[in-house]
């Protein structure tokens, strides 16, 4: 016979209501009661009935992750983090790709919320900065968390100081002797693109290097856009000796274009990216990149969202640290470039 919540309560010596509060991770339960209840759950192999749980609480215990991002590696990392937090709190997760520039974008999100009734949404960039969607969710009181939004002054989610990270990457290239440093951005509507471009310019300014618009090309945070942008950069009369790509997928495209042009990495051109996705360790030479802990950010953003849902508390916008992963795709500037500087 299926173990019931009443069986768990009897085993633990508590009320069924206490069992329910423990399983829903509600606050104000004495730690001794919580541990005793969880021990009974494990001993009896109790598995709550999701339908009964939803009916009893008038909630779906479902979190929806929405994304519009061409990088499958980034999405996978974030998804794993969201799933970790959902599993921890006994929530289910649904993943929905959406085109935020589509005319029916708001209608599609509205239909999703109406049909599946998720208790909250996790929004990745650029959806995290979609002004009309944010206004709609705010007006309807739909809980949501944002990952890497342009505005970090309010809201719930997880963010990283991408401007400082980009500045540090440029500083690394400068210390290697590079002076012609190019940057491939993401789409201008993407918050990360804005922060990383600002950091690139900060790095140039700190090194006393002029900003050259010809060395900045817009990409789409995708492999193909990296190839196209790199071809444009490598066709310049004075091509760059280093390329800082907006993300790892773009950097992989730059590597492909470098091979196409017969350029060695890092002998002729140094290449670096952003995110530290698995791709950065799969290409050759291994990619120097900014380690953005995307999985941690997905987990933290979801935890803050569930904090507002489960505990009726105010979640935070949590800032996570970055590190530079220095690998073999960056090296000293070519001698001719250093001789020209001298």
UniProtKB/TrEMBL annotation:
Question: What SUPFAM superfamilies does UniProt report for this protein, alphabetically?
Answer: lambda repressor-like DNA-binding domains (SSF47413), Periplasmic binding protein-like I (SSF53822)
Q: Which GO terms describe its molecular function?
A: DNA-binding transcription factor activity; transcription cis-regulatory region binding
Specify the HTH lacI-type domain's residue ranges: 3-57
UniProt xrefs under Pfam families: LacI, Peripla_BP_3
Matching InterPro entries, A to Z? HTH_LacI, LacI/GalR-like_sensor, Lambda_DNA-bd_dom_sf, Peripla_BP_I
Q: Which domain of life is it from?
A: Bacteria
Q: What CDD domains has UniProt attached to this entry?
A: HTH_LacI, PBP1_SalR
Which keywords does UniProt give here? Answer: DNA-binding, Transcription, Transcription regulation
Stored PANTHER family: LACI-RELATED TRANSCRIPTIONAL REPRESSOR, LACTOSE OPERON REPRESSOR
Q: What is this protein called?
A: Transcriptional regulator, LacI family
The root-end lineage is: Bacteria, Pseudomonadati, Pseudomonadota, Gammaproteobacteria, Lysobacterales
């Amino acid at each position: 016979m299926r173990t019931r919540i009443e069986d768990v309560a009897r085993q633990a010596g508590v009320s069924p209501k206490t069992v329910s509060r423990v399983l829903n991770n509600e606050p104000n339960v004495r730690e001794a009661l919580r541990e005793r209840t969880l021990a009974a759950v494990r001993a009896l192999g109790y598995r709550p009935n999701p339908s009964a749980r939803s009916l009893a609480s008038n909630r779906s215990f479902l979190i929806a992750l929405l994304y519009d991002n061409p990088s499958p590696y980034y999405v996978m990392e974030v998804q794993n983090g969201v799933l970790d937090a959902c599993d921890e709190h006994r929530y289910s997760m649904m993943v929905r790709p959406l085109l935020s520039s589509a005319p029916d974008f708001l209608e599609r999100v509205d239909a999703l919320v109406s049909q599946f009734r998720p208790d909250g949404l996790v929004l990745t960039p650029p959806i995290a900065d979609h002004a009309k969607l944010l206004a709609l969710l705010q007006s309807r009181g739909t809980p949501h968390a944002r990952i890497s939004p342009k505005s970090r002054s309010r809201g719930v989610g997880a963010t990283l100081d991408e401007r400082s990270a980009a500045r540090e990457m440029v500083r690394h290239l400068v210390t290697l002797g590079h002076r012609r440093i190019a940057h491939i951005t993401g789409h201008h509507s993407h918050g990360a693109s804005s922060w990383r471009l600002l950091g690139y310019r900060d790095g140039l300014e700190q090194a006393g290097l002029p900003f050259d618009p010809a060395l900045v090309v817009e990409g789409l945070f995708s492999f193909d856009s990296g190839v196209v942008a790199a071809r444009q950069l490598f066709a310049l009369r004075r091509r760059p000796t280093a390329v800082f790509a907006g993300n790892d997928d773009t950097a992989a495209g730059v590597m492909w274009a470098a091979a196409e042009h017969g350029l060695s990495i890092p002998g002729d051109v140094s290449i670096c990216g952003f995110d530290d996705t698995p791709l950065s360790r799969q290409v050759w030479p291994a990619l120097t990149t900014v380690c953005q802990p995307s999985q941690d950010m997905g987990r933290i953003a979801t935890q803050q969202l569930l904090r507002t849902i489960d505990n009726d508390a105010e979640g935070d916008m949590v800032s996570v640290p970055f590190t530079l992963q220095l690998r073999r795709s960056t090296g000293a500037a070519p001698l001719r470039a250093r001789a020209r500087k001298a």
